[in-house]
């Protein structure tokens, strides 16, 4: 399968889109990065640095930067979606007619759309046609943008129902410090990336309250059980959640101080109000909105997700964090499972 000749558009010039576009350019792929903010795109094209979302890293000289969507999408063999999930549908509505019918569609964003409770694969199916799922790849795993940009060793998973598409993505992204695995469980890989952000907020809350290492380890473990239960109900393969896009990313985001989701939770645990926390953040913490999506999904599917429920109540119903933890601990005693 062709890989070296890929011409790739990266849609979204936040920290992750910029880091991934830079990996591709360093790998010798013909890569164009679309940036939403016009002034930032002009600055990046001139100064080769994303001062807003990925300061401190010089971009590869071959990486093309633009705020013009038609220019970014012209004559591409692969597109990589990396905008926040809640604006993905709007961006795709502008991009749809510019995307070729055999272009590989890759998504690296992690979340569930609020109004529809859909993952990005289903948003793509609605906006680009059901057939696009045959060339759709979910790219996910434990990967902080800043560490990837610094060239630190990182692993990721490319999941698709189409093995050849997954292999093209694997080949386009892999290099000596960035290693991609293939997988065929799109549902599990997408769900893992979305749910871990919610559990990371809960882990941050737990640490912000000063509850210690035992509590955090327990929360990660029981969070994984919730992810697994929801995944199985939605047709995912349970083994996926033991992998990079499940446990791997859950552990990273629940313990790594670079996580925006964990940071939101930590500040909540320390007593700050959500509005105050979000007002001083210019980046996205997908778990804030995805907490509501996952909570609604769990209710509609009848899946028990007590940590997600409490995270939702703290975030969106003003439940005091300490009270939420007391309620979690007071639940009926049961067998582990
Ligand atoms: N940053 C990471 O380390 C990392 C790693 C893996 C996955 N992700 C995922 O990647 C996705 C993007 O996150 P990020 O960290 O790159 O973003 P970011 O927080 O660094 O930046 C926010 C992005 O949102 C864009 N944006 C805001 N409003 C928009 C609009 N109306 N239309 C289009 N774009 C708009 C901005 O241009 C910018 O690209 C998220 O789903 C995130 O969970 C991030
Ligand atoms: O900073 P966060 O919390 O959005 O997490 C970033 C990545 O998803 C980690 O894999």
TrEMBL record:
Where do the catalytic residues lie?
Answer: 196 (proton acceptor)
Q: Which UniProt keywords apply?
A: Cytoplasm, Lipid biosynthesis, Lipid metabolism, NAD, NADP, Nucleotide-binding, Oxidoreductase, Phospholipid biosynthesis, Phospholipid metabolism
Chain ranges of the Glycerol-3-phosphate dehydrogenase NAD-dependent N-terminal domain: 8-165
Fetch the InterPro entries from UniProt: 6-PGluconate_DH-like_C_sf (IPR008927), 6PGD_dom2 (IPR013328), G3P_DH_NAD-dep (IPR006168), G3P_DH_NAD-dep_C (IPR006109), G3P_DH_NAD-dep_N (IPR011128), NAD(P)-bd_dom_sf (IPR036291)
Q: What class of enzyme is it?
A: oxidoreductase
Q: Which PROSITE patterns match?
A: NAD_G3PDH
Q: Which reaction does it catalyse?
A: sn-glycerol 3-phosphate + NADP(+) = dihydroxyacetone phosphate + NADPH + H(+); sn-glycerol 3-phosphate + NAD(+) = dihydroxyacetone phosphate + NADH + H(+)
Q: Which family does it belong to?
A: Belongs to the NAD-dependent glycerol-3-phosphate dehydrogenase family.
Protein name per UniProt: Glycerol-3-phosphate dehydrogenase [NAD(P)+]
User: Native species of this protein?
Assistant: Pelotalea chapellei
């Amino acid at each position: 399968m062709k890989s070296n000749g890929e011409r790739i558009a990266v849609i979204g010039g936040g920290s992750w889109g910029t880091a991934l576009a830079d990996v591709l350019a360093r790998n010798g792929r013909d890569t164009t990065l679309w940036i939403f903010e016009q002034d930032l795109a002009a600055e990046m094209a001139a100064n080769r640095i994303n001062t807003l979302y990925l300061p401190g890293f010089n971009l590869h000289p071959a990486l093309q930067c633009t705020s013009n969507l038609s220019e970014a999408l012209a004559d591409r063999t692969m597109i990589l979606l990396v905008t926040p999930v809640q604006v993905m549908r709007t961006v795709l509505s502008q991009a749809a007619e510019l995307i070729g019918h055999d272009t590989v569609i890759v998504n690296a964003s992690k979340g569930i759309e609020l109004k529809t409770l859909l993952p990005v694969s289903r948003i793509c199916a609605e906006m680009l046609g059901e057939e696009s799922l045959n060339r759709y790849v979910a790219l996910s795993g434990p990967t902080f943008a800043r560490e990837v940009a610094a060239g630190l060793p990182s692993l990721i998973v490319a999941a698709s129902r189409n093995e050849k598409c997954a292999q093209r993505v694997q080949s386009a992204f892999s290099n000596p410090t960035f290693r991609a695995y293939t997988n065929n469980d799109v549902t599990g890989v997408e769900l893992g990336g979305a749910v871990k952000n919610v559990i990371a907020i809960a882990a941050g809350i737990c640490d912000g309250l000063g509850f210690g290492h035992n509590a955090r380890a327990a929360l990660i473990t029981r969070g994984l059980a919730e992810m697994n239960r929801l995944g199985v109900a939605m047709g995912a393969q349970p083994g996926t959640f033991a992998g990079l896009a499940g446990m791997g990313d859950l552990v990273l985001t629940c313990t790594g101080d670079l996580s925006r989701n964990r940071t939101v939770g930590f500040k909540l645990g320390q007593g700050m109000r959500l509005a105050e926390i979000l007002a001083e953040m210019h980046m996205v913490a997908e778990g804030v909105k995805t907490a509501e999506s996952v909570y609604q999904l769990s209710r509609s599917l009848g899946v028990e997700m007590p940590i997600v429920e409490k995270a939702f109540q703290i975030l969106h119903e003003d439940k005091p964090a300490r009270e939420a933890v007391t309620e979690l601990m007071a639940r009926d005693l049961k067998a582990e499972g």
